[in-house]
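Hello forum,

I keep getting stuck at the same step: I have a sequence, I want structure tokens, and every attempt I make locally crashes halfway through. Rather than fight my setup again tonight, could one of you with a working pipeline run this one for me? It's a single chain of 566 residues.
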Amino acid sequence: MHKTGPVNCLNRHFMAIILLLCVPSLGGAQGLEQLKEKFIQERSFEVIDRISTIQQIGELDSLEASEFLAKIIQDRTEVTSIIESSVRLVALHGHSVGLEAVVEHGFLILPLRSYWVIRDCWDRDLTPGEQQYLARKGLLKVPFLKVEAQNIVLTLATRVTSSTAGESAAKLLGNRKIPAHNQALIVDLLRIHSVTTVNKKLGKLFRVNDAKLQCAVLKALQQLEAEDQSRTFHKALKSQHWTVRACSVDIFGDTHDPEVVKVLLPMLKDPFVEVQVSAVLALRKIGGKEVVSALVKQVSKQEGRVLDDICDALIWLTGQDYGPSPVSWTSWWDREGEDAEIRGISREEYERIRAEASDSTTGTYYGLRVISRFVTFIVDISGSMEEPYEVNTRKLPGGRIGRSGTGVDDDAEGGGNKREKLAKIEVARRELLRVLDGIPDGTQFNIIAFESTFTPWRPALVEMNDLIRSDAMDYVRNLGPRGMTNVYDTLISALDDPEVNTIYFLSDGAPTMGKIVEPGGILAAVRARNAVRKVKIHTIGFHLDPKASILMRLLAEENHGTFIER
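Reply #2:
Ran it on my machine without issues. Output:
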């Protein structure tokens, strides 16, 4: 006996949406008027039987077709599946009437579970007509929408280039119908469009105890050069939210003013590593002997990621590399500090110094220090990693040499210069086995192998011990090449782990798979995702083509890391 009911109905609606994407084009020969009439006649039909007609209307891709789809979106008597289908089709057209219908009617008619459809459909560049609608009219509808709909409209508005969007946003600032996290998007609009008439209002808005809003206010006040709001920046250093403290530290660093060093030094004792990292980076921007002296003293007091960043900062400022050794740094500073020229060095000089140190520094991964306690190793296992690669097989420094199965020549004496050809995946396996063998117990780490998709070894970071070490090394030994190269989804997955603060990303090619493949898009997305936490991303490239080399270099440079090319 055939059963009907809510679940069966939902399944049929779902099938209707699938069919909407799969029904072949029947052409527009019938004409829009005929199709409109047919659509009306089929109102009593099951959803699955109405899909063909609405698909044909959508395929016409004309303003008139968009206007008809917009009317369907406004129809409160229409079923949800048909309205969703109309939203999908009208979004493809790009006419402003579609977005207008969604903002002014669709959000009010559709259930919350359907909002993802709208967000997904407009996850693209806005057309000039859509931008104009949002800037002049759509934004002003925000107070009358549900909170979730407000967020979607305001997020879309951040892509509008017209200054009119800033003027409309100014009218919404502080509106009590818009909650704090959405007010943050309004503040972003004011910053993007340099609306300077709201500085005092922004200062008052900082009093709202919401981390996202407070960070948005700080960034806006900085860009709008609100010098009269200095007290707000100092107040932010004592915020209960670590993100706000870190944001304020960043802003103080951007001043490049030696006078703020005394304000930043106490932030090295903040309970959150992210704030300490921000403080080190801010102090590096300012430079000078006072900063170097303070950082040299911190080498013996810090560990993990913060110590790693202090070592980097000291290289950038002094041109010297004594790694994480407090004795060496203190000795050098006592000897040379009084006459040292703290001028800072170029990236080229920095990379040269790191390259020279890579063969003499213990506990490294491709010459990169591994002292963070929260680490993810990302390894490319795409099909191209099966290609041969000539390597020097001398015993490399680092790791606890002598454990069986590390892929290291345990009998080598002093290291020879023998060269041989190995598959790139074998070289990657050997080096990762070496670093896993040397990571101290207690370190939190994970491994992500990627090709067309990505496969984390564990769902999240795990603590190193003898059993975990053995399991991880077995996993690495079994890695084999296959598939294409999905850079974007893999990196975003790694950044989604809230504990990780350092990533080692190894690849041999340009991205060929993923939600975003274009290098500029990948860089922008990672930059945005990593702006607050400042995860350090080191990149290691094997035989890269020029395009891939640029991507890997910029991924490291823009995310506090170092690029190593082999």
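The longest strand covers residues 374-380. If your local run keeps crashing, start a new thread with the error log.
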